[in-house]
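Student: Send me a single protein entry containing the residue sequence and its fold in token form, directly below this note:

Tutor:
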Amino acid sequence: MSTSTLADALDWLVGGSQGPTLILGRSSASFASGLRGRHRVTLIDRDRDAVSELLRRAPSGLPMVAAAEALPLAPCSFDRVLLAQNFHTYAPGLALSEFARVLRPGGRLGIAYTVRDDSVPWVKRLVALVRRYDPDAMAGAYGTDSLDALTESAYFPQVQTRSFRRWVPIDRPGLIAMVERTPAAQALDDETRAALLADVGGVYDNSARPPEPLLLPFRLSCWLAEVDHTELTAPLDLPDEGLQIRL
């Protein structure tokens, strides 16, 4: 993810909040790095090595080994909960209720996925070429279907979405290698695979403007939702003298 794309996405997801932020999962390390020095962050993954990676990206963060579905955190602890590329790996019903529980009133959940943008003509031609050999190839199963659980959640009744464009330079050998690594290409015999890769080279030659490389388009797609505590099993009371939890 480019620095400018990440910064724009974080500005939108975090807004003017300077409060404590919970970052979940190794794949969210770029968010941890982007907020480094700007926010008090808590870094969580169920894997100890993953937590260590997050801590390397945000050394001042508070590291914890825990599951997203059972967070060892007090209710109403965070202004923001942020995830990238990993919401589909959690049990959505359990995770969303936990995110709602640890968010303060008015707190927000932000989720991001980087997905390939197939609307660009040369990418359309490339995908169509590979699908001659495997109709399901390059389908882009990124995990974004899991966000249906967020849009249907009573804990987060209003969800905003926004996308940020990212362009990744790729040269001719790089494009051929990318296709060669796909399961569709690996399943072919040597002669058929060679023919496919030659056609991929042709797509590059007909689309690029040497000496400039092609630009592979991606979208950083983001979802932002404000918590609604009225659906929590345990009501949250906020009296003037401080926070109390009634169980």
